[in-house]
Amino acid sequence: MNPANSGDINIVETIFNAVAEGIIVVAPDQRISSANTAAHQMFGYPPGHLMGEPLNILIPMKYHKAHVGYVDGFMNQSAKRSMGKGRELYGQRKDGSQFPLEAGLNPFELNGKRYVMAIVIDISERVEQQQQILELNEQLEDKIKERTQELDEAVKVLRKEVQKRIEAEAKTKEALLKERELGELKTKFLSLVSHEFKTPLSGILSSATLISKYKTSEQQDKRDKHLNTIKSKVKYLNNILNDFLSIERLETGKVSYNHSQFPLSKVLNEVVYDANTLLKEGQRINYPENLEEVELIFDEKILELVLSNLVGNAVKYSGEGTHVTIEGQVEDEFLTLDIKDQGIGIPLEDQKHIFNRYFRAENALLTQGTGIGLNIVKTHLENLGGSISFVSKPGEGSVFTIKIPTRANHGA
Question: Which pTM value belongs to this model?
């Protein structure tokens, strides 16, 4: 070997060992024919110790069988390629520890033999960084899920809070509306009561004044007429006061009921007799004939109050020449009575309020009344296990129906 060739060899060897990547040259028998310094350091071997060793000492045991076939197949090809592309590759150090690597394979011929030069890179740091990135991504995803869940919970709480506020606002509006309606009702009621008291009192005063003018015995009929007017007005005022007292007793729970046995006909006769004094020209009350034998155990005074109110209303809100009809039947220990009239009826928009205290339908405002009677009737009936309902057509009339137990054990 001449000096020139010797110098070239030294330069090539110096470059070979100076390369940072591991370089391993594998002979056809899959033994290592050459390896640079970086390769020895990478696999943990002293310099020169890899020469002549089988390539498998650098490969984990579980990959030996597959690796032999893979290298044999590559030996028969001439193209460069990245070894194990798409697969994870691992090297094994002298101490048995394993590490991930990348290998670029370059086949070449020398003196008629085919060799493979593998350029090996330890990618442990990159894999570790990738693993850290994966872990950070997982942590980030977990954080996102956690924050999303927290946000969902916060949205749910917010929605509940919004719903509560909406409900509270609705209740407030409803309360304000009721308060306004109550205020309007009180104003209407005070005006109504003032009128209801003022009218009969004026009549009483006028009759009392006129009586003093009739001093002779021949004028007794005129005195009687005014006396009857005074009695009628006083009775009307007394009924109004009784209604107010009934409301007070019902509200404070001071009302008491007295059950007794009595014939239904007794109460009906009294109610019809009193109502006949209120009839207009041509009006008539049709009495039920099929209820003569009916006996009740009920509060007699309350039943009289109920029927007097309903029959009185039927007469009051019906015109001349009309009929008020009372019909009834007993079934399953309950008495059902219908009071039918041919009067003005109840406007549809007012029907839902008709049992409210102090309420009066728009078409009844010019007729005497306090709007208390039906509320008292309904409360008493329900307290005694009964009920009241109605159907009405404006301009055609109304039918009020009460249902009460025939025996006291059905009621309170």
Answer: 0.49
